[in-house]
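Mods, move this if it's the wrong board.
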Amino acid sequence: MEVEPTGRHGRVRQIPPSVAARADEIVGRLEERLRQLDSPLLASADARQQLESQVRSILTAMATRLATPTGREPAETALSLEIGSARATAEIHPRESLRAAALLFEAALPVVLQELPAERAGEDTEALALALHAEIMERVSVAAVPYVSLLLQRMHTSQFDERRRIARDLHDGAAHAVGVAMQQLELYDAYLSRDPAAAPPRLWAARESLEDALSVIRGLSAELGSSPTEDGLDKALARYLDANIPPSVTAQLTSSTDVDVIPAEVGDQLYFVIREAVRNALLHADTTELRVTLNVTDSVVTASVEDFGRGLDVAEAMRASHRKGSGSGLTSMRERVELLGGVFTLASLPGRGTKAEIMVPLLTARR
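Not the wrong board. Structure tokens:
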């Protein structure tokens, strides 16, 4: 690979062919570092093959970059997009790619510099280092595009899921109550002519049903008109628990005093996840006790929902939710948390209950 570009401090006359010959060594160094970090980039044979192909492509492209800094090869972009799509599909966060990029630079640069003739080492070191760094980081940026697309898709799905919930509440709450009221009014008309004494209770029942419908509509209207956590995530959770916990369940909410550092857009997402976890516990856990905690420290926002019911098979529950697709149940909860750069975990013991835990970096959540 003979090239004669002008570097920042001299002319890089040649990228030694022996550098490409040592690609296996560079890949081995990189894989060793990634294994130490238990990186998901080595989770499959296909992922390792893509990693090796990317390293070889980078080493080859260094010469082209140095010779023609503005020239790009379509195949390089295609490979990076392919890798990015595969990692997005595997739900591997771009931070893993950034970590691998830094490790690749550390693994490759010494090899590249070792292959330079001694008389050229000082002259070409900076140009080669810059070319290697630029080539690596450009591929990282290209590979991040599919993950951004995935996040946008998940955001849309999340919003659609929320619309479906509102539609369900309107149908199951308001529409059902109105339907009951209409039935009671029809019975009132029937009893009025046949049994006048039995008619008034039907009218009262209709009034109660209409009041229930009005309450549902007002609640949804308030929810749509403003952030559910407008006056604080802790207060929003307290309202939800007060309105939805049945008398047979004892619920406890514990919150730190500095939750006001959480911005509304982040607090809203946390509220939806915690609310869904509470719903799941009430519907499936058969528990008489529920604990909700919310805590803010210097570095993270953490929250948990814990019940003491029948428990569940976490792996099977996650698989079932995944089969239903994005926007359903546990999958939706995990996706909402990951959109905030956080982590969602679920742990359960049969007969001893289930605990959902959420952790979001405070740098993401702070105003």
